[in-house]
Amino acid sequence: MTRTPLLLALGLLPILATTACNAAGPDASGQKAPATAAASADQRPFTATEVSRFDQPWAMTFLPDGSLLVTEKRGKLQHLDLASGQKHEITGVPKVAYGGQGGFGDVILHPDFARNHVVYVSYAEEGTLDTRGAAVARATLALDANGGGQLKDLKVIWRQTPKVSGEGHYGHRLAFGPDGKLWISSSERQKFDPAQDMSGNLGKIIRLNDDGSLPVDNPFASQGGVAAQVWSLGHRNVLGIAFDANGKLWAQEMGPAGGDELNLIVRGANYGYPIVSNGDHYDGRPIPDHDTRPEFAAPKVTWNPVISPAGLMFYSGSLFPQWKGSAFIGGLSSTSLVRVAFDGDSAREAERFNMGERIREVEQGPDGALWLLEDGSKARLLKLTPKA
Question: Cys-Cys crosslink for 24: which of 33, 108, 142, 213, Cβ 3.0 to 4.6 Å?
C-alpha cells in the first residue's frame, strides 16, 4: 500500500519485533507471494540431531579438517572437534562490548586459510562517552595438539564510523567474495539517517582488500575517506550476506515492523532506508513503500509479518539435491528455517520449517548436511540430514 511521507527522528530506539511469521511477503514483481505454512517436525524432509550446546552462540565456520569454530556473544571463541564432541576455548579473542545486541560476532576463514591460517572476527567494541561500534580484526589461528589454541597477531582492520550510543544494529556479518575481497555488513545502529550519510559507514555494505586496505575500483573510491569503503548504502540491520553460485551478493535485512528484506546487492545502489521501506516504524508511524521512490533499489522478497532473519547461506551440496541453489535463512521470532528459491534475479520463499526455537545461524557442512545454531543460553548445535 502507499504510505504518506514522515519526518524521521534521530535517536528513536525501535522495539525489537517479536511477531512470528506464517506468510511470505511480496516477490520481486511486487505481487504477494503465496503463503507458506511452516512444516512441523513430522513433515520435515530431514532429521535434526543435537551435536553440542553453546552459550549465546552467534556464528560458526568449518575448518578444513571438518572441525568447527563457534563464536559466543559474551566473548568466547570455541573449537569443536566433531569426531570426539570435545570443545576447547581459543584464547586471544579481543575484548567485546557485551550487551543488548552487542558482543562477539562473526568468524570466517581467509580464502587461502589452508596455507596462511588467517581468520577474521567481528565484534562490538567500546568507544568513549558510552559509545560503541562494530570492529573487524584478522589474526592467525594457532591450534594446539589438545584442540585448543589461540589467535595470534590480532590486528583491527576496520571499524564502524562513527561510534554511537546504544546496543543495537551492529550487523558485522562477514564474507569473502569470488573476487577475493572482504565484504562486511555495517548496520545503522538504530540511528536511521546515517544509512544515507556518506561521511560515515553505518547502514552500508563495505568492500575491502583482505588486509583492510581500500580497493581502487569501489564505486565511491573517488570521494575518498570513509565513502571509499562503501559498496552500497541505505541498509537497516543486515544480519546475513552470502554469494550465490553465479558470484552475486545477496543480503537479508531485519526491517522495521513488517519490513524484513532479501536484497540483491548491486554496485553503488541505494536501498532507501530510512526514506522508504515495505514496513513501518514500531510505534505505527508509516514509512513510504519502495514503489513510491523507484530510484531506490527494491528488495527481491519482503516478509510481513516478519521472520526476523539471522544468518544466510546458499546450498551447493549433494546431500539434499532438491535444494541445490536455494538459500537458507535462520528465523529468530519465527523460530524457523526458511528456504528461498531463485529464478534468475527473482526470489521467493519456497518452504518454511518450524524448528521450535530461535535460529541464529545456518551453515553447510563439508558433507552437505545443514547445520543450525539456536539462539540464547544452552543453545543447541543441530545437524540436519535427510530422513531415511
Answer: 33
